[in-house]
């Protein structure tokens, strides 16, 4: 597996990241352990989660995903083989939200306890918190790095102006900087990242680990008619967002290229992202070993220039 540098952090990560939102939610503990073992055995090392996963499920309090990963780390002994990314800032209830320094200090210790580890490789601001000065948030992260609790920091869901301001603040004050950005990006959702965020990340050497790599399942070809919305819990939303003439045009091109490469539409969609300038590692999830093998195959696909350009044209705004 050819690893990639994540920004200037010194971290080396696989070209695809496993999205851990499914752990403790749509995947039980035993299946989660099997998926994580298979991921590492296939040569991948990057796993992304968040403290808030999966607080949206009735009866859940948040931290379920981190807890599953922590149990796996203890059972497997593979902590040194993986790069663990988690996040802070989403609403955990009881006033636990945002990027205030005192809350960050509290939240990181809770994440470390759930993950059963003494350090987090990549600790990310899950959302921009404009109520707190960037300098205060970054100073809090600096303290965590100094204490050995965190190796590098990243940002998720930041606009280009705010990411630029954060990078400038780090440079001006001599503080650790956001080494990665986690934006929405896939074959359908291209406009904001390509126009505003990618030029900044390329210029500043910031790694990009984009989420919704498969557009909530749409790019697998699973949803092609209104009736397909019933195929999953997120089906109605996915169909509502993506099932339109442009979305169908993208699926048609994915079908054609998938046939040529003897692959699946989803594999082609991910391979296209991995080949894009500025992208370090798209984030994608699997809920079965069969789905995981699809991801493994996608990361090993190398599309030729004609295939990439055909997809560029089919997905143009």
TrEMBL record:
Record bears the keyword Oxidoreductase: yes
Residues annotated as domain NADP-dependent oxidoreductase: 15-314
Pfam families in the record: Aldo_ket_red (PF00248)
GO molecular function, one term: oxidoreductase activity
GO cellular component: cytosol
Keywords for the protein's UniProt record, in alphabetical order: Oxidoreductase
Gene3D superfamilies hit by this protein: NADP-dependent oxidoreductase domain
Protein name as it appears in the record: Aldo/keto reductase
Organism field: Paenacidovorax monticola
